[in-house]
Design brief:
- The structure holds two protein chains of two kinds.
- By secondary structure, chain A is of the alpha/beta class.
- Chain A contains 14 helices and 13 strands.
- Helix content of chain A is 41%, strand content 15%.
- Chain A has a seven-stranded mixed sheet, with helices on both faces. Chain A has a six-stranded parallel sheet with strand order 10-9-8-11-12-13, with helices on both faces.
- The longest helix of chain A is centred in the N-terminal third of the chain and has 16 residues, at 30-45.
- In chain B, helix 6 (144-152) links the parallel strand 6 (132-137) and strand 7.
- Chain B is globular, with a radius of gyration of 20 Å.
- In chain B, the strands form three sheets. A seven-stranded parallel sheet of chain B has the order 4-3-2-5-6-7-8, with helices on both faces. A six-stranded parallel sheet of chain B has the order 11-10-9-12-13-14.
- In chain B, helix 2 crosses helix 8 (182-197) and helix 2 crosses helix 12 (337-349).
- Chain B has helices at residues 19-22, 41-55, 71-77, 91-103, 117-129, 144-152, 161-168, 182-197, 221-233, 260-269, 279-288, 337-349, and strands spanning 24-25, 31-36, 59-64, 83-86, 107-112, 132-137, 155-158, 176-178, 211-215, 236-240, 253-255, 273-276, 292-294, 307-309, 352-353.
- Helix content of chain B is 37%, strand content 17%.
- The chains are: A alpha/beta, B alpha/beta.
- The interface between A and B is medium-sized, with 27 and 19 residues.
């Protein structure tokens, strides 16, 4: 899944007379859409009618809604949701959360308490601000909950529900594997490595990928505006952005994945595929301690030497494909 | 070039002196950026800016992001000779605009005076640029922006010791200081002018014979109805801004026009009672000694003795009273908060010369 620089607003409004939930979910990147999709699906199961969401909770390839802040403000004013769900940590979600907070609307944050420890990273500051703006903090594991408690957040505001990424992966994995997307590129399962880039790559990353491509089949999935820069990566197959299920198919069949995307770090852990993160740090620490993730950095020489080996995956509590249901149950029961 | 004062002279607490407090700061200490997000920020900024200018350690800039450039006229009225730059940006662009502003200057600290959205954006932009964030205020509000600003702040300059104690439980002790309330500096500075002005004469009301409603927040229907009842019983002057500006007044109430800080204080000091949803108005009332009835979510414990928390529906029962309470003596509300603020900034962020 490649997080294209898209913005979207997902409106979840209740029409069920016996439901207390009237939620407005702000998902401002495709990554955030994937995280919210299981919640939307679970809310649908509970009879909460939702507007602006793809059928069956499937993450869309593109978003029909790209609202300006003024439009988000209008939606908030018109719908007056009982709670606003936020996922992601980009500037756009900070803006959306500020608009919600300024209107006195309660905010529930999915993926709270994640910290990379790198305060020079704007996203780390965004995560802190978003957590502080939130009234309810859904965390992916006990480590994030402990982080929040250490930072002074009240325990009552923290709900350990797990990550919603496994929900989406487990829901769509079988469909993805039937598609045989890799075969369309003339590749077999385990024969290639996949690079999933959500940001424009640095020269060092491109050099490293070029070195990988010289010794092994490499598929690079990136935003269209980065394709020209990636031409230097020699024999790599450059694609993207892809439909979520198509990307999941490529990911599941890869020998290893190199990525700068936090969602991909979690997806590969669920899939059991080795993952090498092209950054000096990661806030997705559970994927490092229990999953398949390795911090690689952005040095070309390190990237060039990547060699997928066997990985051991430890079960992660609450990463069972039911996080969306737990969040939805909270919303319907307590929102 | 060095300054004409040492930082020791402005110490406001009992901490033991360290070498930084007896050193002499250079005058080229960089730039302090004050953030104005609403009109009520301006008096506090003015007190701070005047004191910093006296200390001579830093250059200063006020970024005025308040609606309709509300800060600049107040700063001019109060004699704060500080550069003001207007910043107008959509919500999505505000962060980038603040970052650009900070990157264009040798800013060493961004000072925010409230827990509103503009202050949050400025604090986040500063944190991203590696610029220190200074929060001036009382207790950390329950609001999300207040909590976020407190998390990003490097230095917490608190209005009083109880607030500081609460903050020290959450933040390093050395980064929490008590300076008092800069707004009170302005109230004291303007007291004589406000008294001589006798603004009440413009409205034909007698001293202690009227109620002044200072309304800045979001109108509550119960409060609107209560004001109508109040206007039936007593002369009522209404100073409305924000969401209240568009509310139709009761027939017998009189709207107070835009008139500046001194005129506002002049009306407040001769009022028989003040009803307000504004923390700023509560603090001013506490400092000048006028009975104040606060309502709404913004009710603040400002000074204590003269503030009564009143439900919006009870406002109709407020009556002007002739026996004005004694202005409460709040520790650190002594008119020197600005000086302590300037000293704290100097100790924390100025370049120093030993000896």
């Amino acid at each position: 899944m490649v997080a294209a620089p898209l913005s979207g607003v997902l409106a979840l409004t209740s029409t069920a007379p016996d439901s207390k939930a009237a939620a407005l979910a702000l998902s401002v990147t495709r990554s955030a859409i994937v995280r919210l999709a299981p919640v939307a699906a679970a809310l649908a199961e509970l009879g909460v009618t939702q507007a602006g969401w793809a059928p069956h909770g499937r993450p869309p390839r593109t978003l029909s809604l790209a609202p300006a802040p003024e439009q988000i403000a209008h939606e908030l004013d018109e719908r007056r949701p009982s709670v606003v769900l936020c996922a992601g940590d980009g500037d756009a979600v900070v803006t959306a959360a500020r608009l919600s907070s300024a209107r006195g609307l309660p905010i529930a944050r999915i993926g709270a308490g994640l910290r990379s420890g790198d305060f020079t990273d704007p996203l780390e500051l965004n995560r802190i601000v978003l957590d502080e703006l939130a009234d309810v903090l859904f965390v992916d594991g006990e480590g994030a909950a402990e982080t929040l408690r250490d930072e002074g957040f009240p325990a009552a505001a923290i709900a350990c529900v797990g990550s919603t990424i496994p929900d989406a992966v487990l829901r769509w994995r079988a469909t993805a594997e039937r598609r045989r997307v890799a075969a369309g590129f003339g590749l077999e399962r385990g024969e290639y490595m996949l690079a999933a880039l959500s940001r424009s790559p640095s020269d060092a990353v491109v050099d490293g990928l070029a070195a990988v491509a010289r010794r092994r089949a490499l598929v690079v999935c990136a935003a269209a505006h980065d394709h020209a820069a990636l031409e230097r990566a020699g024999g790599a197959i450059v694609v993207g952005p892809l439909d979520y299920v198509d990307f999941l198919a490529l990911e599941a069949s890869a020998a290893a994945v190199l990525t700068d995307s936090s969602a991909v770090q979690e997806e590969t852990t669920v899939l059991g595929v080795p993952c090498f993160t092209l950054a000096a740090g990661s806030e997705r620490t559970l994927t490092l301690t229990h999953g398949t993730n390795t911090l690689l950095g952005e040095d070309a020489a390190d990237i060039a030497l990547v060699d997928p080996g066997p990985v051991e995956v430890a079960p992660i509590a609450h990463w069972d494909g039911a996080a969306g249901r737990r969040i939805a149950a909270w919303l319907v029961g307590d929102a | 070039m060095t300054t004409r004062m040492t930082l020791l002279s402005c110490r406001g607490d009992e901490r033991p002196a360290d070498w930084r407090e007896v050193a002499t700061p250079h005058a080229d200490g960089g730039r302090i950026v004050h953030v104005g997000g609403e009109c009520d920020d301006a008096p506090r900024i003015a007190a701070a800016a005047i004191a910093i200018d006296t200390a001579g350690v830093f250059e200063q800039l006020v970024v005025d992001a308040a609606p309709e450039s509300a800060c600049a006229p107040v700063l001019a009225e109060l004699g704060a000779g500080v550069a003001v730059r207007r910043l107008v940006a959509r919500p999505a662009d505000a962060l980038g605009a603040f970052e650009a502003e900070l990157s264009a200057s040798s800013c060493v600290a961004v000072v925010v005076y409230a827990d509103h959205d503009v202050a949050l954006v400025a604090a986040l932009a500063a944190a991203r640029r590696g610029v220190a964030v200074v929060r001036v205020g009382g207790a950390v509000a329950a609001s999300g922006p207040g909590r976020a600003i407190a998390r990003l702040a490097d230095l917490h300059l608190m209005f009083g010791e109880p607030d500081a104690e609460a903050m020290r439980a959450r933040r390093p002790h050395g980064r929490v200081r008590v300076i008092g309330n800069p707004l009170v500096d302005v109230v004291r500075r303007c007291a004589r002018d406000a008294g001589e002005r006798a603004e009440r004469r413009r409205y034909g009301v007698s001293p202690r014979g009227y109620v002044l409603a200072q309304l800045t927040g979001v109108p509550e229907p119960r409060a609107v109805a209560a004001l109508a009842r109040l206007a039936e019983r007593t002369p009522l002057l209404v100073d409305a801004s924000g969401g209240w500006a568009g509310i139709a007044l009761p027939p017998r109430a009189r709207r107070v026009g835009a008139h500046g800080v001194v005129a506002r204080l002049s009306l407040a000091r001769t009022a028989g009672a003040i009803v307000t949803d504004s923390p700023r108005a509560q603090e001013e009332a506490a400092a000048i000694g006028v009975r104040c009835h606060s309502f709404g979510a913004a009710a603040a414990a400002a000074g204590g003795a003269t503030i009564r928390r009143t439900s919006p529906g009870e406002l109709g029962g407020v009556l002007p009273r002739g026996n004005a309470p004694t202005p409460c003596a709040v520790p650190y509300w002594d008119g020197h908060a600005g000086a302590r603020l300037a000293a704290a900034l100097g100790v924390s962020y100025a370049r120093l010369r030993l000896g």
